[in-house]
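Human: I would love a firmer grasp of how sequence relates to backbone shape in proteins. Take your time, and here it is.
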Amino acid sequence: MRTLLKVLLLIAGAAIAARVSALVISKQLDEGSEGSDEFRRVVILSGIDFASQAGGLRDVEVSVTLGGAKLDLRGATIDPAGARVLAQNTMGGLLIIVRDDWAVSVDDTLIGGGDSQVEVTPIDELPGDAPRLQIDVVTRMGGTVISTKRQDW
């Protein structure tokens, strides 16, 4: 019985240490704020709900590992030259919400049972001068949704 208790305490301690380490690493790798035109968010063993208010959104990176992220870009204005999102999702959940008047192109790579759903306005239904957003997604054994409609999972 004592051996089992020691093992359980060791496992619990390791889990707590991993979680704390993940939070520290995530915060150190994050760059930019809600108003930044370029930003990076790293999520490890946790979750975020991030809403961009960028005035000229250009470059976004989001990386999710064993966690969840909701990235709401509807409050942002895209730079006239367009914007790019690079999203890496490993065994997590990622929701990217975009505006329905943006021309969104998605290049997704699914690895090891990953799932991706794209629910955006078709580009041919938008005017030629619609703001352009390129989203490149790599999903490894997780789920990624890019949507103009969905608010929550």
